[in-house]
Amino acid sequence: MADCYKCVLLFGAPGTGKGTQGKLLGEKDGFVHLATGDIFRALDKESELGKKFLHYSSRGELVPDDLTVELWQDFVKGLVLGDKYVPDKDLLLLDGMPRSLKQAEMLDGLIEPLAIVHLTVGNLDEMVQRMKLRAEKEGRHDDADENVIRNRFDVYHNETAPVLGHYDKGLVTDVNAIGTIEEVFQRAEAVVMSVR
Ligand code: AMP
User: Is residue 68 in contact with ligand 1, taking CB distance under 6 Å?
Assistant: First the structure.
């Protein structure tokens, strides 16, 4: 692919409010929010890919890298074709991508991160409780079970957190994710606007 997508990466352990903040930031002019989890959840559950997604996500595991990157690339191409994302003008807000070192390597040359927003929280138990509440409200099968939630944290620490080290340190800003949605939004927005 010839295009190199300028983007802001959103990082944060499960339950840090990454999706919520991504959606809010994506409402700003010139930004396009793209959550890989949403792309997966929109798949037909009876399709081959939909079944694979359920297989992995219901255990709190990552979908294999090749599948994920291929689906993601097809989705972005679709956005471009549908004029929903104009690479020369818009900035992509990537939520949940890349989520492993292999994915980061596969995306080198395809994406150009201008900033990385790293949402941080201290308390693991509080995060687990937040996720259980969300699972009940949104009917998310992957977060209903405490063991699965804890596995998602392990996967984040073992596979996703190391991705931060793949990029230039100067790109990463830690953003305190404790506070109201509005407070956290203001902190994240400041980072995002600094590269606009
Ligand atoms: P999320 O909504 O971001 O928490 O994602 C829900 C689930 O989708 C994850 O637990 C994974 O199973 C899958 N998923 C989302 N993004 C990725 C990714 N970049 N690589 C592999 N699996 C992913």
Answer: yes
Q: Separation of 130 CA from ligand 1 center, angstroms?
A: 18
The finding on whether 17 has its CB within 6 A of some atom of ligand 1 is no
CB-ligand 1 contact for 143 (6 Å cutoff): no
Query: Which atom of ligand 1 is the closest one to the Cα of 14?
Result: 4
DSSP string, 96-134: S-S-SHHHHHHHBTTEEEEEEEEEE-S-HHHHHHHHHHH
Q: Say what the alpha-carbon torsion angle 133, 50, 64, 126 is, to the nearest 10 degrees.
A: 0
Q: Which residue is listed with tokens 């004029």?
A: 83
CB 177 within 8 A of CB 120: yes
Sheet (strand 111-120) strand order: 31-35, 91-95, 5-12, 111-120, 172-176
What is the pLDDT averaged over residues 38-49?
95
* Measured distance CA(51)–CA(31) in Å, rounded: 31
Q: Is 12 in the pocket of ligand 1 (CB under 6 A)?
A: no
Residue closest to 117 by CA, chosen among 141, 137, 140, 91: 91
Span from the CA of 88 to the centroid of ligand 1 (angstroms): 27
pLDDT in tens, 147-188: 888 888 899 999 999 999 999 999 999 999 988 999 999 999
